[in-house]
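> forwarded from #structure-qc
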């Protein structure tokens, strides 16, 4: 009976957060098909391990953690090649408007170590509170705050370096 109740809670969570979960997976793999595979694998893992969820209140963070871990496992398995989908290629190849700031931000985010990128993505792209990020990543709140601060500092430094390089090259 309890298992059935947990399955219903999980199903509701998946339905309510399907766009966010897909976006989260996509933020890691940058490819539609792979993101959909990760979501599907995550749903399967969650459904088959529902008995591992002890606290019904934690269903969202528990499921998000499964998605993050599944995405990280996928990236580890497929390190050799990183593909871009057609939409991403169109965005960067269009030339219709200059979007350098977003390009630099995306590149800087990509270059961050995984532990920093996860915190940034969950906090700012998924709009989670610090304690929710901590729950998803299975980390302590102070660790998440520290990583967030360090990640923002690294990103700011990298983007400032890129800007100063562009200014110097334009002056010459």
């Amino acid at each position: 009976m309890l298992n059935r109740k947990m399955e219903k809670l999980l199903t509701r969570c998946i339905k309510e957060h399907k766009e966010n979960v897909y976006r989260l997976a996509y933020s890691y793999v940058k490819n539609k098909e792979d993101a959909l595979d990760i979501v599907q694998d995550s749903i399967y893992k969650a459904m088959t391990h529902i008995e591992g969820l002890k606290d019904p209140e934690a269903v969202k963070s528990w499921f998000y953690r499964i998605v993050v871990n599944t995405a990280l496992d996928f990236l580890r398995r497929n390190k050799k090649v990183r593909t871009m989908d057609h939409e991403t290629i169109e965005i960067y190849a269009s030339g219709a408007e200059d979007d350098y700031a977003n390009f630099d931000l995306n590149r800087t985010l990509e270059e961050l170590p995984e532990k920093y990128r996860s915190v940034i993505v969950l906090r700012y792209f998924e709009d989670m509170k610090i304690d929710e990020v901590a729950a998803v990543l299975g980390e302590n709140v102070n660790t998440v705050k520290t990583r967030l601060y360090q990640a923002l500092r690294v990103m700011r430094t990298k983007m400032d370096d890129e800007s100063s390089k562009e200014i110097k090259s334009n002056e010459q």
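QC bot note: Residues 58 and 135 are 8 Å apart (CA to CA). The longest helix spans residues 141-171.
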